Amino acid sequence: MVSVLDSGGMRPDARAWFEHRTTSATSLAEIDVPALLSAKRRGGHRVSVVLPARDEEATVGVLVRDLVDRWVTAVPLVDEVVVIDSNSSDRTAEVARAAGAEVVAAADVLPSHGDRPGKGEALWKSLAATTGDLIVFMDSDLLGDVSHYVPGLLTPLLTDARVDYVKGCYTRPLSIDGEHRPAGGGRVTELTARPLLNALWPELAGFVQPLGGEYAGRRSALEQVPFVSSYGVEVGLLIDLLQVCGLSGLAQVDLGTRTHSHQSDQALGTMAGQIVNTLLARAERGRHGRRLEPGGLLTQFSHDGERFVPMSTAVAVDQRPPMATVAEYALLREAGEGVVG
Ligand SMILES: O=c1ccn([C@@H]2O[C@H](COP(=O)(O)OP(=O)(O)O)[C@@H](O)[C@H]2O)c(=O)[nH]1
Ligand SMILES: O=C(O)[C@@H](COP(=O)(O)O)O[C@H]1O[C@H](CO)[C@@H](O)[C@H](O)[C@H]1O
C-alpha cells in the first residue's frame, strides 16, 4: 500500500500510532500504582528489571537502591532487580550488590556461547539470567529522579494485552564539560538513527526516542528476536519487534526528562557506525533495489598536528540468535530457573 504523506510529515500509519500509542507518565502523580499492582496480580505476572552496566560504579548504586526500596520492598511491583555486569573494570558489581541487586557477570551466563563485548550482549544474556514474563530495561548511568520510569513503562504492558513492547521517550538535556543545555542530548538519535529510520522504516517515525535505553517487553516477544551485540541493539529490537508484533503491538510512554552521563563524540561516532550497519543489515534492499552490503569497518580521523590520522573500528553486525532457539535456555526455563549456568 502506498501511503500518502500527511501534512505532519509522518505517514498516516505512523501518525495514527503516535497519537494513539503514546501515553504520559512524566511523574508518579500520573501513574495509578494500585491499579498496576492489581493488574499484575490478576495476570499472574512476574517482573524483572535489568540494568546493563559497564563501569557504572558512580551511578548504579543509587538507581538500584531506589528500585529495590520503592518497587520491591515498599510496593511489590518488581520481583527481581538484576544488574548484568558487562566486563566492568571498576567496582560496579560490588556497588550494585551492596545496593540490593542480584549481580550477574555477562561472561558467566550461557558460558558455552562465549562472551562478547557490548551492551546488546549484556541484554541478550539478561534473558537467561532473569525469570520475569515482563522485563524492564534501564541504563545504569541515569541521573536525577527516575523513580517513575519502571511503573510508567509497565503500565501499557499491564493494562493492554495487545502491547508487547514499550519504549520510554523524554526530552534529553545535554551536560558536557560543565555546560548544561536543556536539549541537545540524543546526538546519535538526531544525526543518524532518526534520519535513517525515517527513510527506511517510515512506519516507525512516531518513535520519539528510538535509541532510548529505557524500555520494557514481554519475554514471549523478546525471546523471538535476535539481539545485536553492540549499541545497535535498540534499533535492531525496534525493527525486529515491528516484524514480530506489528506496529499495534508497540507503544511509547513519555517519561518526562532523561539525563545520563555522556560519551565523547568519537565514542558516539563508533556507536553511530554500529547503528548504521545494524540498519543496513536489516534493510535488505534499499529504495532503489540495490543490494546493500553493510560494511565491517568505520573509519574516523584524528589530527596529530600535521595530518589527519585514519582510525578504523569494526562495526560488523554481530548478533545473537533468538533466545527461544537456544537449547540451554529452554532447559533453564523448564527448570524455572534464571540463573547463571
Ligand atoms: O559494552 C557495554 C556498553 C554499555 N553498557 C551499558 O549500557 C548502558 C548504555 O551505555 P552508554 O551509557 O555507554 O551509552 P549512552 O547512554 O552514552 O548512549 C549503560 O548502562 C552502560 O553501562 C554495557 O552494559 N555494556
Ligand atoms: O540517543 C543517543 O543518541 C545516544 C547518545 O546520547 P547523548 O547524545 O549522549 O545524550 O544514547 C542512546 O543510544 C544508545 C544506542 O542505542 C543506547 O544504548 C543508550 O541507552 C542511549 O542513551
From TrEMBL:
Residues 48-158 form the Glycosyltransferase 2-like domain. The keyword Glycosyltransferase applies. It catalyses: (2R)-3-phosphoglycerate + UDP-alpha-D-glucose = (2R)-2-O-(alpha-D-glucopyranosyl)-3-phospho-glycerate + UDP + H(+); an NDP-alpha-D-glucose + (2R)-3-phosphoglycerate = (2R)-2-O-(alpha-D-glucopyranosyl)-3-phospho-glycerate + a ribonucleoside 5'-diphosphate + H(+). Pfam families: Glycos_transf_2. Its EC number is 2.4.1.266. Belongs to the glycosyltransferase 2 family. This is Glucosyl-3-phosphoglycerate synthase. It comes from Modestobacter italicus (strain DSM 44449 / CECT 9708 / BC 501).
